[in-house]
Amino acid sequence: MIQIYTEIETGQQWLEQYRGKSSVFACILGFTATGLIPGISAAGATPHDRKYTAIADAEFLINGVASNPQYPLPPLEMGASPVFISRAVVEALNIPVYLFNAGLPIPPGVSAIDLGGTAANCLTSGRALPLEIVRNLFARGFDWGDKLAKQITPGYLIVGECVVGGTTTALALLTGLGIKAKDKVNSSHPSCNHRQKWTAVRKGLARAGFFPLSGSIEPLKLVAAVGDPMQIVAAGMAIAASRRTGVMLAGGTQMLAVLALMRSISDFFGEKARWERIVVATTRWVAEDPTGDTVELAKAVGGATLLATKLSFAASSYPQLRAYEQGYVKEGVGAGGCASAASLQSGWNQSKLLAVIESQLQRYEQECDRLSY
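Request: output the structure for the sequence above.
Response:
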């Protein structure tokens, strides 16, 4: 149920070491006004919807199906939120979830650890975040990575995210770090909007004085210019946690950008990580997206061990889930990592994984129907 795409030997060793082990899920919430650009993301049917996607997903991740949620899941162009996958797994396996507010426009409707961040300006401004905020977020993420790792050894830490527009800030980060990511990233659209993303990224880097690229850029200054608050928290958290235990960066393009950021931070500031303990785990809808090139992107990052769940919705009775097979949604809220975590436990196969996800969606639809009467 798990495919290894790059760094095969390291991936096999990681899977064997953590097979059957317990895990903890750290989900980092953030916001960038980049996500409000018309058409930039399908994680919410309108820009207004996308403003609430992260806090709605967070509430569902913690509470599951509930009557009268404070922030209902926003409508999507097609498909269902990936939080149905994540919630199904953490509920079935009783995985502890730590929710982190790295920078949201409004507080979530459920308890979250506030890291003192702020929502990011659109990356086209070239001034996404104050540098002092970025430095503080790295330190807070680092502290929490160490704290969580102490609790779960010999298990592993799943680091997930929810940031609408995050694949565009990921492209900006990767590009600023000197990685040729243009036309390789993914999106929640069935066909990635590469031209729109690249136009925004080039504009932001230029306004920050970083484009055309020449020489290396200090990573924290790059995040402050064109990044989002999740990226720097995840980088600090993963560096610290890897010194004690395994780390699963749960996501595709965004987590490859986080890994690239970690490497740059290590080079600039000497913050060493145990790279062999870190893998990037996503869905096969991302890893095999014909409109991106995730595998080549992982190779470009250098030493990235890319895994993906083989979870399929082709046989699902729910059209919202079958939409994933048409390229919609693909990933988010640590879905690929959570599905992979399930597959590392005994007795979890395609049928069982699909059943618990469909059960989650069935209960959600029944509750929606009940409230409509």
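Residues 350-372 form the longest helix (23 residues).
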